[in-house]
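Possible regression after last week's pipeline update?

I re-ran a chain I had predicted before the update to compare outputs. Posting the input and the new output here so someone can diff against the archived version. Not blocking, just want to make sure nothing changed silently.
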Amino acid sequence: MIHNLVCRPAKPVCSKIFAMIKITFSFVASVFIIWFLLSDNTVTLGEGIKASTPPVQVDIETKDQKTLIKAGYDIQLKARFDITAKILSKKNYTRDAGANLSKTDLALGWGTMSDEAILDTITIRQSRRWYHWKTPELVIPRRDIERQSANMHLIPASDAVQDVIDDAKEGQIIHLKGYLVNARNEDGFVFKSSLTRNDTGDGACEVIYVEHARI
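New output (post-update):
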């Protein structure tokens, strides 16, 4: 008697092994991608004050104030401005009325607000051109948080400056130099800069025409 022997691959076993390999690979790849994104976007510098000097502002007398034109906006230079600070948060805007002039806001901190031992106790976020913070317990006076951090709308003076801003990551120390400005377009939309670090709430953001930027 002759038996016809048909060889079939061990399909169920191979499929299970292949599926396990695929799941394992997908898991490892996902972990790597998450790790890469987190490590790529946030820089840790450790405890201690990393930007000790407060921003330097030199007001321009009214008669000497100049007006520039950029992206359909009249930009009035109000004060020279120089700041070295820690990037607490970064937010890009693409759809609001001012996005064609200033697409990036940075929440910046100096003094004790550049110390990660302090910052680890504070939750920081940005939305709708505002910077928000909250903490379950104040480890430094509230006024120190308010006076040593601020949300800043950045207007790049050149593509090179925009490139530095685009590459900037949360946690890094950034140096910006330029002018505090008021900007207005023909539709009546206005960016108006604060001229003090002591204010809070609506109108407290700085608007910086950035001529130089460096990490």
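Follow-up from reviewer: compared with the archived run. The CA atoms of residues 34 and 88 lie 21 Å apart. Marking as no regression found.
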